[in-house]
Structure formats: structure tokens, C-alpha cells
Design goal:
Elements lengths: L1 H26 L10 H21 L14 H7 L4
Length: 83
């Protein structure tokens, strides 16, 4: 039981530290204006969804009847200059 309690203490301490850091940054106005353009946010999101879909499909987590077109990685990387 002792290991579980120590693990919980580490989790709670981490949550408190992250909350305090976020609170201080928000009070300092660091979240008022976005750092990335909306176009860049959408590009990052599309890349993440693509990679996640490929990974989940290769692990069999997406049913075979899911028929969304997936671009081959080489085509995607060339399109987005990721080579």
C-alpha cells in the first residue's frame, strides 16, 4: 500500500506544480495572444491526426470498414516538406 500512496503524492504534487505554472503564466498575460497562426495550428493538427490514424490502423484499432482515404506517408511528407 505504501507504493500506491507515494505514487499518488507524486501525481498530486505534479498536478499542483503544473496548475501553479499555468496560473502564473495566465496572470502574466502569456495566454492572451496565440503564438501560432491559425493556419499553423491546423497544419499541426492535420499532421497529428494523420500519424495517429496510421498508427491506430496498423495496430488494428480502427475497424476495416472505416473507409477514409489515407495518403501514403511519402506523399504527405513531400506535400508538407517533411523529408
Amino acid at each position: 500500500m505504501q507504493g500506491m500512496v507515494q505514487s499518488l503524492n507524486v501525481s498530486v504534487a505534479t498536478a499542483l506544480i503544473l496548475y501553479e505554472a499555468q496560473r502564473q503564466l495566465e496572470n502574466a498575460g502569456r495566454y492572451d495572444t496565440p503564438v501560432l497562426s491559425q493556419e499553423k495550428v491546423e497544419e499541426i493538427k492535420a499532421a497529428w491526426v494523420y500519424r495517429d490514424t496510421v498508427a491506430r490502423r496498423s495496430k488494428g484499432q480502427i475497424p476495416l470498414e472505416f473507409k477514409e482515404e489515407i495518403i501514403e506517408p511519402s506523399e504527405y511528407d513531400q506535400k508538407n516538406n517533411m523529408l
